[in-house]
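Researcher: We plan to redesign the surface later, but first we want a full-length starting point. Tokens attached.
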């Protein structure tokens, strides 16, 4: 029987992992280089702060950028409270029985549902049945539902990292269960909760299919005035100028893509900074 040196096996394993990582990183790096190279010439204050002109062949992306910010804010308003409260119930209150297991399986399955299915659901429920029409309200609710599994899962994991001794000491001092959760558990789980929330928002900000059915407009000459108005959004605007409008300069297409990437990247950087700062304050 041939015996292989463990050190050789370890080196082969590390080499395989290294090349597997390169297979993921190299294409992503090349895509980013291409977008930055062709998109940077288009970036200017006029591009960010002006309206599209000449059938969206010129001008800027201000309505689409603002619409994306509105949708992200609406998604946060609808998904964050429900997601955190749901995670608290499942982690701290719900007993380990059939109903809890069904809910947990449902959350896992919802996290894997394609975004286009959420778009069709939002179209049927919010746009048609509840008669919100294609609006910021319908789009925000749809994106909020899509973000719930991520927020609930990340919040539950964050709550699970808080030592049980924190709960035991608080209860031993006479605090109620809700006071224990609010004052001892949630503050220490906050970094994980915020990180998961921002990551969910960054995903929602880059989605096209859900907003295609519920809120996105091909072109609007004015900004939305209420939650019942349609809005332009960067993902759909990028799709439109890349596939539906002929003779659009590549710099405009790549510039729009670059702004969307930078917006999502900024959200992720904020999540990393928040997590790092709160982790420094931990005493355990």
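Model: Full-length starting sequence:
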């Amino acid at each position: 029987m041939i015996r292989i040196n463990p050190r050789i096996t370890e080196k082969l394993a590390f080499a395989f992992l290294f090349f597997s990582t390169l297979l993921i990183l190299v294409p992503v790096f090349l895509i980013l280089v291409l977008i930055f190279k062709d998109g940077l010439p288009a970036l200017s204050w006029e591009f960010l702060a002006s309206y599209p002109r000449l059938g969206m062949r010129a001008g800027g992306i201000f309505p689409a950028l603002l619409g994306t910010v509105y949708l992200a804010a609406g998604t946060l308003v609808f998904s964050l409270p429900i997601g955190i409260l749901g995670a608290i119930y499942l982690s701290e209150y719900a007993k380990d029985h059939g109903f809890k297991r069904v809910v947990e399986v449902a959350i896992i399955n919802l996290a894997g549902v394609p975004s286009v299915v959420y778009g069709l659901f939002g179209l049927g429920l919010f746009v048609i049945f509840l008669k919100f029409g294609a609006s910021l309200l319908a789009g925000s609710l749809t994106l909020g539902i899509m973000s719930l599994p991520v927020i609930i899962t990340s919040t539950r994991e964050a709550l699970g990292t808080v030592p049980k001794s924190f709960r035991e000491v608080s209860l031993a001092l006479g605090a109620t269960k809700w006071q224990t959760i609010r004052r001892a558990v949630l503050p220490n789980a906050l970094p994980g909760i915020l990180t998961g929330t921002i990551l969910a928002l960054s995903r929602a900000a880059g989605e096209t299919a859900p907003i295609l059915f519920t809120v996105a407009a091909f072109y609007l000459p004015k900004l939305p005035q209420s939650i019942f108005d349609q809005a332009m959004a960067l993902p759909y605007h990028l799709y439109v100028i890349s596939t539906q409008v002929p003779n659009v300069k590549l710099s405009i297409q790549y510039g729009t893509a670059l702004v969307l990437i930078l917006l999502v990247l900024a959200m992720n950087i904020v999540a990393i900074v928040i997590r790092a700062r709160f982790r420094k304050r931990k005493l355990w």
